[in-house]
Amino acid sequence: MGIYTNTNSAFPSQVVSDAEKASWEYGTQVGQAIEYEWFGQGRTNGNRYLTSWNQFHQLRLYARGEQSIQKYKDELSINGDLSYLNLDWKPVPILSKFVDIVVNGISGKSVSYTHLTLPTICSV
After folding, report:
1. Going by C-beta distance under 8 Å and a sequence separation of 6 or more, which residues neighbour residue 82?
2. In tens digits, what is the pLDDT along the chain, a chain of 124 residues?
3. Is the distance from CB of 12 to CB of 33 less than 8 angstroms?
């Protein structure tokens, strides 16, 4: 099986000697490649850090029941008209119910520890 090498990668070659990998220059190249991968694409292309942060933020909003309801209004509207609907548009925080169930299930478990005493080999 051959070693996979990606020519489009910003990372330096991994098929080098250990002495070269131990050098300061090689470590700097690896660090710069990591920095570019996470932060270097810019805000318009969506770098990895900002993309992960935005996804985490959206999931936390959903978990708290604070997500945007515009997508639901768009699905239910007819040509943008919502006057025929008599709905409460506040999202129901369903996920918090499951969090409470899991947390209470974990905290309700009693843990008991047993210890073994070893026989004394010599006494002073």
Report:
1. 73, 76
2. 455 556 677 788 888 899 999 999 999 999 988 888 888 766 666 688 888 888 999 888 887 888 888 888 888 888 878 777 777 778 777 777 777 777 776 665 665 666 666 666 665 5
3. yes
**C-alpha distances in Å from residue 16, one per residue of 3, 5, 12, 26, 51:** 12, 12, 9, 10, 33
What lies within 8 Å, CB to CB, of 36 at 6+ separation is 10
- Tell me the whole-structure pTM to 2 decimals: 0.50
34/50 Cα distance (integer angstroms): 15
CA distance 80 to 9: 47
Name residue, tokens 């570019």: 36
Helix ranges, the chain (H): 18-21, 24-39, 42-45, 48-64, 70-76, 94-107
